[in-house]
Design a protein that fits this description.
The structure is a single chain. Strand 13 and strand 14 form a beta hairpin. The strands form six sheets. Strands 4-3-2-1-5-6 form a six-stranded mixed beta sheet, with helices on both faces. The longest helix has 21 residues. By secondary structure, it is α+β, with helices and mostly antiparallel strands. The two termini are about 45 Å apart. The chain is built from ten helices and 20 strands. The structure holds zinc ion (2 copies).
């Protein structure tokens, strides 16, 4: 499996004439080596690999990591890399420019004289876009766990309950069901606060008649889930129902249009044009969705600016919304895996207007 993943680096080697790639981003290191710790570096030459860590992780690395050599080097990591490049005659070294501070880059220039450092941009993270079967299994499991946890706490959504209490109950329920933690700070935005697409749970009390946008996800074994359910606390008004129906239709149309090869921009447009035709185009400001995996937001980005084609195996969210200042908002989000002829839902809460 890791061999397959590492083969996705071949175009980077070839296009840039590289002798080796230095990975410093922990998600890419996990993906390419199996390491689950929080600090290390991975040096990959075409035929050989070195995993560099300090003494906290040497034993763990020997158990988890697939590579030719585990090098314990503490703070002298760049010296160890300099030694390896000299002995192995590695002259052109690609590095993850979008995951490095300027300070570390300067130290690399100083410690690796004579080595040509080649910037690799965020496109390197794109090796993780199409998930393999082991990843899809993890993503499906965490999505199911998270949806079930949500269903188990919906009875708490009643007038007088604080948004923060709902967020805390949901997090606790996820942990009870085996999650390692929450994937992000949950959004619980009720009533007028629903107009804020990223309205994190606050001390506001839920009121009868509020629409409540709840955006939640769990993390487990490094993988994340992402789902948004908008519920009504008591009978919603006519406008709230109208907005819900438009967002639901945009969501359904986008999900029906998911297939390999469609461009991210085209897919975004399916939902955006429907919301526009319905008269709410000015109130859907964000992109239609994003990739989910070792990061909660990763490639691809579904937005009017992204021309990349959707890949089979990608796990993406579909999350149109309408946000009306002074009134409130509706977002409906599912996470799906792109299959050969469409997509399969990973998140499980039925997307209809739940009136609680
Ligand atoms: Zn979300
Ligand atoms: Zn999302």
């Amino acid at each position: 499996m890791l061999k397959n993943r590492r083969s996705r680096l071949i175009p980077f080697f070839e296009e840039n004439g590289l002798d080796a790639i230095l990975c410093t981003d922990m998600n890419n290191i996990r993906y390419l080596s199996g390491f689950t710790g929080s600090e290390a570096a991975l040096l990959l030459a075409r035929e050989r690999s070195w995993f560099l860590c300090d003494s906290r992780y040497t034993e763990q690395a020997r158990e988890e990591v697939v590579c030719d050599e585990v090098v314990e080097c503490g703070a002298a990591r760049l010296d160890a890399i300099a030694d390896i490049t000299r002995v192995q005659n590695l002259c052109r070294l690609g590095f993850e420019a979008s995951h490095l501070t300027v300070a570390i880059y300067r130290r690399m220039v100083e410690k690796l004289p004579g080595i040509t450092l080649v910037e690799l941009g965020s496109e390197l993270d794109g090796i993780r876009t199409a998930k393999d079967s082991a990843e899809i299994e993890q993503l499906a499991a965490v999505a199911v766990l998270s949806s079930h946890a949500f269903r188990a706490i919906t009875h708490l959504i009643t007038p007088g309950v604080m948004e923060l209490d709902i967020a805390m109950a949901l997090e606790l329920e996820m942990r009870r069901r085996g999650a390692d933690g929450k994937a992000f700070d949950f959004i619980v935005a009720s009533g007028e606060r629903g107009a804020m697409p990223h309205g994190r749970a606050s001390e506001k009390l839920i009121q009868a008649g509020d629409m409540i946008t709840i955006d939640f996800g769990a993390s487990k074994n490094g993988y994340h889930s992402d789902e948004t359910v908008t519920v009504a606390c008591g009978e919603p008004g006519e406008r709230a129902r109208e907005i819900y129906a438009i967002v639901k239709e945009a969501h359904d149309r986008a999900i029906a249009a998911v297939k390999p090869g469609i461009s991210c921009r085209e897919l975004d447009l399916v939902a955006r044009s429907y919301i526009g035709e319905s008269g709410y185009g000015d109130y859907f400001g964000h992109g239609l969705g994003h990739g989910v995996g070792l990061e909660i937001h990763e490639q691809p980005t579904l937005s009017p600016r992204s021309s990349a084609p959707l890949l089979e195996g990608s796990v993406i969210t579909i999350e149109p919304g309408i946000y009306l200042p002074g009134f409130g908002g509706v977002r409906i989000e599912d996470t799906v895996v792109v299959t050969a002829d469409g997509c399969r839902l990973l998140t499980q809460v039925a997307k209809k207007l739940h009136v609680l």
